[in-house]
């Protein structure tokens, strides 16, 4: 057996050097995609190549097309930067090459998921009896949560959706906020419920659902299979739906509550922001990302379900050759994947590295830095268009065309990176502070660059 020590060390050394370079490198500058493809291009090799040479070629080809999204001045897309222990865990997880299917294929991977899953529930205030599927992203977590919902609301009216499918099934009402994330719609498409099934609930001025509107929508239809999608953390404003009152209303109508809390659920991890997601424990399923605010490596997210039996009934399958399946649901029983990467190691390592206090401090720091952005840009004469309740800031620089020009100039400048969005019919800059390494100095430097470019 060959010893790949030098090869693997070179890879790890490169990763470390890249991370060290993050604070100093341009965050993302416009680049010709065709040139990046050219660097990778070439005919499919006919013969094998030495691994050392392949690694060197890969490092050289990728370098110009890398985005410093893990760096401290990247404020796009609610993106974090993978924590050191979590990154190291990911490196060894790749070395271990575990099949995270069940306890036969990897006892260690399942143990990491079990223990980290318990820690996640504790941090987020989700009941300890809930099941947790370790999935690829909040998109997948929404799909799993809504699949569990679909199972239960149809089982309640005597319909076995896993066996019979949806043809001829009783109709399901899906109620969701007008400001829901686009992935909820895609999950509904994949589950055969379709986006036409959605009855929208009006949003309040900061993008959380309006309770009066939810009450009216619930009352407007006949009782029957009902799924309601709530949200913790509006992707533009950070607003969280009033979960306690909404769960209570929906349950009185016999519905299932799914909470899309990709980043906003982390408000629960700090005593300062916990009130924003008060009552979340009453929901039936929850979706939350690890690779956003928790600063875990991609791809990492969690699908929680208050009813483990329902969760497993919607997702698991068995086959004669699958040794170890059919017992307590684990791993693949709780997700839509079969063979899976062992992402639980990085989750365990990240939580172990931060601890309860570290997670709370991360949330608090990002929220404080978001307010620093808002205050700094307001003082410079620009308009902050949202109520900065969490880590999201929306900024207007005049009319839509001018705002778009400022966003483009900031992206081309490379000091920091922020995206553009449309909110309430207006073009705005969207600043999301989610990285564990961002400092006040990073924010001040970014504000100075934005103000300079806007001028
Ligand atoms: C990011 C996000 C998603 C999708 O999460 P992925 O990890 O990209 O799959 C869903 N809902 C909300 C509110 C989000 O912010």
TrEMBL record:
Family annotation (Gene3D superfamilies): Aspartate Aminotransferase, domain 1, Type I PLP-dependent aspartate aminotransferase-like (Major domain)
Q: Name one GO biological process term.
A: carboxylic acid metabolic process
- Does the record bear Lyase in its keywords? yes
Q: Which Pfam families match?
A: Pyridoxal_deC
Assigned keywords, A-Z:
Decarboxylase, Lyase, Pyridoxal phosphate
Q: Which residues carry this modification: N6-(pyridoxal phosphate)lysine?
A: 292
What cofactor does this one take? pyridoxal 5'-phosphate
Fetch the InterPro entries from UniProt.
Answer: Aromatic_deC, PyrdxlP-dep_de-COase, PyrdxlP-dep_Trfase, PyrdxlP-dep_Trfase_major, PyrdxlP-dep_Trfase_small
GO MF term set: aromatic-L-amino-acid decarboxylase activity; pyridoxal phosphate binding
Q: Which PANTHER family match?
A: GROUP II PYRIDOXAL-5-PHOSPHATE DECARBOXYLASE, MIP05841P
The family line of this record is: Belongs to the group II decarboxylase family.
The identity of this protein, by name, is: Glutamate or tyrosine decarboxylase
- List the source organism: Micromonospora auratinigra
């Amino acid at each position: 057996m060959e010893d790949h020590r030098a090869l693997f060390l070179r890879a790890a050394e490169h990763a470390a050097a890249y991370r060290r370079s993050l604070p100093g490198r341009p965050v993302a500058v416009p680049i010709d995609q065709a040139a990046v493809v050219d660097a990778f291009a070439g005919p499919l090799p006919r013969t094998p190549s030495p691994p050392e040479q392949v690694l060197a070629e890969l490092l050289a080809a990728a370098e110009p097309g890398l985005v410093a999204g893990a760096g401290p001045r990247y404020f796009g897309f609610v993106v974090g930067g993978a924590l050191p222990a979590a990154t190291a865990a990911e490196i060894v997880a790749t070395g271990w090459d575990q099949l995270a299917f069940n306890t036969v294929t990897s006892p260690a991977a399942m143990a990491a998921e079990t223990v980290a899953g318990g820690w996640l529930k504790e941090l987020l205030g989700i009941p300890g009896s809930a099941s947790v599927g370790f999935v690829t992203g909040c998109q997948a977590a929404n799909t799993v949560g809504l699949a569990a919902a679909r199972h239960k609301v149809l089982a309640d009216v005597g319909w076995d959706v896993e066996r019979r499918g949806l043809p001829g099934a009783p109709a399901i009402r899906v109620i969701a906020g007008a400001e829901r994330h686009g992935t909820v719609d895609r999950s509904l498409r994949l589950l055969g419920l379709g986006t036409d099934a959605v009855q929208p609930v009006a949003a309040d001025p900061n993008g959380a659902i309006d309770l009066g509107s939810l009450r009216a929508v619930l009352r407007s239809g006949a009782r029957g299979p009902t799924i309601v999608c709530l949200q913790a953390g509006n992707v533009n404003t950070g607003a969280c739906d009033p979960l306690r009152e909404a769960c209570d209303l929906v349950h009185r109508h016999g519905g299932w509550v799914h909470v899309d809390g990709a980043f906003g659920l982390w408000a629960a991890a700090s005593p300062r922001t916990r009130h924003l997601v008060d009552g979340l424990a009453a929901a039936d399923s929850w979706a939350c990302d690890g690779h956003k605010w928790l600063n875990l490596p991609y791809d990492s997210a969690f699908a929680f379900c208050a009813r483990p039996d329902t969760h497993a009934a919607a997702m698991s399958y068995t086959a004669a050759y699958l040794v170890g399946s059919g017992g307590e649901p684990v791993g693949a029983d709780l997700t839509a994947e079969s063979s899976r990467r062992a992402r639980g190691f990085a989750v365990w390592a990240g939580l172990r590295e931060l601890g309860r206090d570290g997670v709370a401090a991360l949330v608090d720091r990002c929220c404080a830095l978001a307010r620093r952005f808002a205050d700094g840009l307001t003082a410079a004469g620009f308009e902050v268009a949202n109520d900065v309740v969490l880590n999201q800031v929306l900024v207007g620089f005049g009319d839509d065309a001018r705002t778009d020009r400022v966003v483009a100039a900031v992206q081309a400048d490379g000091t920091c990176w922020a995206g553009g969005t449309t909110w309430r019919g207006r073009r705005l800059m969207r600043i999301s502070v989610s990285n564990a390494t961002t400092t006040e100095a990073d924010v001040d430097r970014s504000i100075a660059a934005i103000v300079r470019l806007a001028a």
